[in-house]
C-alpha cells in the first residue's frame, strides 16, 4: 500500500512539473501559412480556457488559429469549401 501511495504522489509531482514547464516552441504566422495542415491540427487540439495567455503554448495556439481561420475564410469566399 505504501508503494502505491509513493507511486501516485510521484506521478502527481511529475505531472505538475510538466504543466509548469512551458518549453513549447512558438511557431510564427508565416510558419503556419506554409504548413496549413499543421495549423489546423494544432488549433483543433488547443483548449484556450486552460492555457495561460502568457505561455508559449497559448501563443502557438493563437498563431495556428489565426492562420486556420484565414484559410477557412479563403476557402469559403472562393467557393471551394
- Major sheet: none
Through-space gap between termini: 57 Å
Secondary-structure class:
mainly alpha
H/E element sequence:
HHHH
Can you tell me about this structure?
The protein has about 80 residues and is mainly alpha-helical. The protein has a domain at about 25-80. The chain contains 4 helices and no strands. The protein has helices spanning about 1-20, 30-35, 35-45, 55-80. Helix 3 crosses helix 4 (about 55-80). The radius of gyration is 18 Å and the shape is elongated.
Record keyword descriptors for this entry.
single chain; mainly alpha; 4 helices; 72% helix
Short structural summary:
The protein is mostly helical. It has helices at 2-20, 29-34, 36-45, 56-78.
Q: How are the SSEs ordered, and which strands pair?
A:
Blueprint: H1 2-20, H2 29-34, H3 36-45, H4 56-78
